[in-house]
Amino acid sequence: MRVLYITDNQIDLCFVIDRSQSIGADNWKLLLNFVENIVNKLTISNNDTRFALVTFASFGELVFGLDVFNNNTSGLIEAIRSADYYGYGTSIDNGLYTARTECFYKVYIYIYIYIYILYIYNY
């Protein structure tokens, strides 16, 4: 497993979360709690970490972008907690497309984008 260490470098972090019917309402709450725990470990500001959230089911949706909650961790956490669970079908390609076109559309050639997929699977 590769571990990502976040130090003094600025990072733009966009979580892409599955909100389809296959996740279920209970797992949706676990996902949001996971994201909230990550946010609580980071410094949210223009100079440290900027945070965005994309959700997807049958379509991708930008819940909030990178420039919305700079220097406002409590507002960011409230926005994460209030993200809606919808159900419907699963289209991860639409979620990733939304992240690329609405979160990272200003990426310059020398910036690396890492995509990590957290997948919850249980029967």
From TrEMBL:
Keywords: Membrane, Transmembrane, Transmembrane helix. It comes from Paralvinella palmiformis. It comes from the Eukaryota. InterPro entries: ECM_Assembly_Org, VWF_A, vWFA_dom_sf. This is VWFA domain-containing protein. Residues 12-99 form the VWFA domain. It holds the Pfam family VWA. The chain crosses the membrane at residues 103-121.
